[in-house]
Design goal:
Elements (H helix, E strand, L loop, with lengths): L25 E3 L3 E2 L2 H11 L4 H4 L1 H6 L9 H6 L8 H5 L3 E11 L8 E13 L3 E12 L4 E12 L4
């Protein structure tokens, strides 16, 4: 006989603790093809009005084949919450504490992006630990368009 259903025990993945994580583990976010709707949504959210991001004719006049994605818009595709990492760490997450990145190649409407996070360091502290992850995004031509780093603070034991 099965135990009665308890929503508090429902999880998309078996939660792991800081000690369960390993350097080299890969967490991929789903690939996405960037559309004009993404550009419009980002403009609404950010208030950015530069024509390089929203005016096709302006872009073409300046040597771009289409609208150029805003760097922060591209960075958003590395959000760990879009993939399996938050399911893996369950309620151990305390905070997303730091990020850095470099924008290495342009992203245009119609490009497909492949975001990936790889654990590069696990820094234990007294009751917490810092997970350092390399963030990268490649496009459909295998070009690296973004490289960076994320840091997360986790409880060492399950919450």
């Amino acid at each position: 006989m099965n135990d009665p259903f308890d929503p508090k025990r429902f999880a998309a993945a078996e939660p792991r603790t800081f000690a369960d994580l390993r350097v080299g583990e890969v967490f991929r976010n789903p690939s996405r093809t960037v559309t004009a709707a993404h550009f419009a949504a980002f403009q609404l959210l950010s208030g950015d009005n530069h024509p390089i991001h929203y005016d096709v004719e302006y872009c073409r006049a300046h040597g771009h084949p289409d609208m150029l994605a805003h760097g922060l818009q591209v960075l958003a595709f590395t959000a760990a919450g879009a993939g399996s990492f938050p399911h893996a760490i369950g309620e151990s997450l305390i905070a997303f504490t730091e990020l850095s990145c470099r924008f290495l190649a342009p992203v245009y409407v119609g490009d497909t992006l492949y975001p990936e996070l790889v654990i590069t360091a696990l820094i234990p502290q007294r009751t917490t630990g810092i997970v350092v992850m390399a963030a990268s995004i490649h496009n459909q031509r295998s070009e690296l368009v973004l490289a960076g780093e994320h840091k997360y603070l986790l409880r060492k034991s399950a919450g």
